[in-house]
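S.,

Sequence below, as promised.
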Amino acid sequence: MSEEHRRRLERLYASAPVNRVFPSTLHLPAPGRAEIRFRVEPDHFHAAGAAHGTLYFKMLDDAAFYAAATLVDDVFVLTTQFNLVLTRPLGPGEAAAYGQWVSGHRRVLIAESRLVDASGQEVARGTGTFMRSRIALAHLPAYADPLP
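The prediction came back faster than expected:
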């Protein structure tokens, strides 16, 4: 992964409107790896007082997705399947999702992710299948616009 591709992917992530609902930051430390940091707020809770499953899915999918996306520098990849295992409730505070590429390069990539709370306790895992699309990264302004 080139430094330019890394910076462009991080900017693409930051530009997604859904991240105004779930504020978070993406860091891509190495090819095939992604880290997302976020804060769980009471607005993210279900009726029993812990994070709703949508937050688990969003962060696990994003971490796995961007781990895979670091290996594809010409087109946008799409999530085609994602499996979740929720093991503990996620309460308020800082949390992180870590993604790791597992296999595949050509058409389909597989990546996994894990979600941890502020104490470092794993609360969920995910595995996703991602497919190369026909959407050129060069056609996405948040990716293609000149870097500062």
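The longest helix spans residues 53-69.

Coffee later?
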